[in-house]
Design brief:
Radius of gyration: 21 Å
Strand content: 5-15%
Number of helices: 12
Largest sheet: 7 strands, mixed
CATH class of the largest domain: Alpha Beta
CATH superfamily of the largest domain: Type I PLP-dependent aspartate aminotransferase-like (Major domain)
Number of domains: 2
Order of helices and strands: EHHEHEHEHEHEEEHHEEHEHHEH
Strand order of the largest sheet: 2-8-7-6-5-3-4
Number of strands: 12
């Protein structure tokens, strides 16, 4: 199997697995217990917290959550005032914002241009005094474009609002922008384990709790933490910091190979300049993606966001950048990264091109 679906989830780093194994095999104490073994577990959790915080801005604290979906829900529902967000956000943001709208909160959803980027003049008109929260994704999970988060954060602060950044796809890969007040993360998108995320809160930012109970996290999140998951997340985050330059060079090399190998019949969706190059979302006219995926079952790639796969609906992100339903349905997403080899990518690209050429000939 050739795995080219890094935006859906990343392979678990061996170092993250090694950090987790002791807590799965022989150490099982509750990190919130006061006895010696509980304190040992707590120390592992805090070490992981410190390792993750090291790749984030200074002047804030990190609260563990069950994943980025919970982190985003908490950040949105835990604030007050009108919300401004983008049409290309993840469903965890858009659906939560819609729930807040139904509850009476004012919401503005900004469009994006054909390159997938928000128009800053439109954003400036929408982010006015009285706005409570601005929410935007650093690196889009479907098309990989990098939004101007720092500029949006400056507008938010000028209006007296908080800036929420969904950094799930960007953390450790691109520069963390200045000015964020809330940052959502997911362990399994940075070669860590599934089932754990985090919300970073700038000092002085307080949120209404989303989950009520023991209040185990200082920021107000309740629930027993898993030392195993935390240790894996911490090890993965440390690796992202250590390997960032090496990973970026590897991804840039793979992007160049892939785009050249695919040839001129394929069109990249979204900006080719302001994007993370480990995400290659592209289309070919008349492509039957379902048939392509059936023909290439030993290559894991996506027809859209993994969170919306199987819905039968065209991607809301691709529609937001102006693609027709037919164009959206003829698009695929190839995601690659640290553990993708050049040889396997070349072989997969060649097979994708051959399969699409065969479709054309059979048409």
């Amino acid at each position: 199997m050739t795995y080219l679906d890094y935006q859906a989830t990343t392979p678990l780093a061996p170092e993250a697995l090694a950090a987790m194994l002791p807590w799965l095999e022989r150490q099982h104490a509750n990190p919130h217990s006061a006895h010696r073994e509980g304190r040992v577990a707590r120390a592992a959790v805090e070490l992981a917290r410190d390792r993750i915080a090291a790749v984030l801005p200074s002047g804030g604290s990190l609260a563990f959550t069950s994943g980025a979906t919970e982190a985003l829900n908490w950040a949105i529902k835990g604030t007050t005032g009108p919300i401004v967000t983008l049409a290309t956000e993840h469903a965890a943001v858009l659906d939560t914002v819609e729930a807040e709208r139904r509850a009476g909160r004012r919401v503005t959803i900004l469009p994006v241009s054909n390159d997938g980027l928000v128009d800053l003049d439109q954003a400036r008109e929408a982010i006015v005094p009285g706005t409570g929260l601005v929410a935007a994704m650093l690196v889009n999970n479907e098309i990989g474009v990098i939004q101007p988060i720092a500029a949006l954060a400056a507008m938010a602060h000028e209006a007296g609002a908080l800036m929420l950044c969904d950094a799930v796809q960007g953390a450790g890969r691109v520069e963390m922008p200045a000015g964020c007040d809330l940052i959502a993360l997911s362990a399994h998108k940075i070669h860590g384990p599934k089932g754990l995320g985090a919300l970073w809160l700038r000092d002085g930012v307080a949120l209404t709790p989303l989950l009520h109970g023991g209040g185990q996290e200082a920021a107000g999140r309740s629930g027993t933490l898993s030392p195993s998951l935390c240790a894996g997340f911490g090890a993965a985050a440390a690796l992202m910091g250590e390997k960032r330059v090496e990973d970026a060079a590897h991804v840039a090399h793979l992007w160049k190979i892939a785009t050249v190998r695919l040839g001129p019949d394929w069109i990249v969706n979204g900006s080719t300049k302001q994007r993370y190059h480990g995400n290659l979302n592209l289309r070919r006219e008349g492509l039957d993606v379902a048939r392509l995926m059936s023909d290439l079952r030993d290559i894991a790639f996506s027809a859209g966001s993994a969170c919306a796969s199987g819905s039968g609906r065209p991607s809301h992100v691709l529609r937001a950048i102006g693609l027709s339903d037919a164009e959206a349905r003829s698009s695929i997403r190839l995601g690659f990264g640290r553990y993708t080899t050049e040889n396997e990518l070349v072989a997969a690209i060649d097979r994708i091109v051959a399969a699409t050429d065969a479709q054309k000939l059979a048409a």
